[in-house]
Amino acid sequence: xxxxxxxxxxxxxxxxxxxxxxxxxxxxxxxxxxxxxxxxxxxxxxxxxxxxxxxxxxxxxxxxxxxxxxxxxxxxxxxxxxxxxxxxxxxxxxxxxxxxxxxxxxxxxxxxxxxxxxxxxxxxxxxxxxxxxxxxxxxxxxxxxxxxxxxxxxxxxxxxxxxxxxxxxxxxxxxxxxxxxxxxxxxxxxxxxxxxxxxxxxxxxxxxxxxxxxxxxxxxx
Length: 221
Ligand code: PRT
Ligand code: MG
Known about the structure:
Blueprint: E1 6-10, H1 14-25, E2 41-43, E3 49-53, H2 59-64, E4 70-74, H3 75-85, E5 91-109, H4 114-120, E6 124-128, H5 131-141, E7 145-149, H6 156-159, E8 165-170, H7 174-178, E9 181-197, H8 198-203, H9 205-218
Parallel strand pairs: 1-3, 1-4, 6-7, 6-8
Antiparallel strand pairs: 2-3, 4-9, 5-8, 5-9
Helix pairs in contact: 1-9
Bound molecules: phosphoribosyl ATP and magnesium ion.
């Protein structure tokens, strides 16, 4: 970004919705709703702050390459991004915002005896969007898995015989239940974090600091 204005990358849906109160705490309101607007760049009440609406998985990429100065992304997304780009990805993560909370879990069809498959050392076919996080989890536990990368609707995979298990995010548990799946292992709690481009942190420090501070104060425990 060449101008001095600040660009914030958000995904629409739960992250956008749960970010609005944090922005309000920083004195910033967003007049347009990304669900109904077709605009990809939304102005805010602060002429020096604008929002770009991108896919949740693209937020770290926009911030890393300076397409946005700052963004908000789930730990699930940040771990996969970090595994691909390494720690020198130019992302500074100053704050866990404690929003868009859920957990990452292993789930299987009701009848599948996961514990016994693990005990036998059987190879388990696991479908997931989170191949890097899943690989690390199962390697640490010494569980043999064949990972199948999917981009969505992981819950379907065991129902059609594509996989024995899935690694996915769970919040209410309603989606698993509706598809006859049960959670058998908790991998980690997930929430969304603020990510800041390292160059922006230096060059736009005066604009960024008050927003980071206001967010920090507004974070719900
Ligand atoms: O939806 P899209 O394909 O555009 O992108 P996305 O799924 O990456 O974005 P979005 O907005 O759905 O999720 C953004 C972030 O919200 C994720 O990266 C997570 O950090 C966080 N989050 C919090 C969740 C959930 N809760 C969640 N429940 N992301 C997804 N889910 C899905 C889950 O994958 C499963 O399909 O909701 C379903 C389970 O929900 P329950 O309530 O039925 O258990
Ligand atoms: Mg989604």
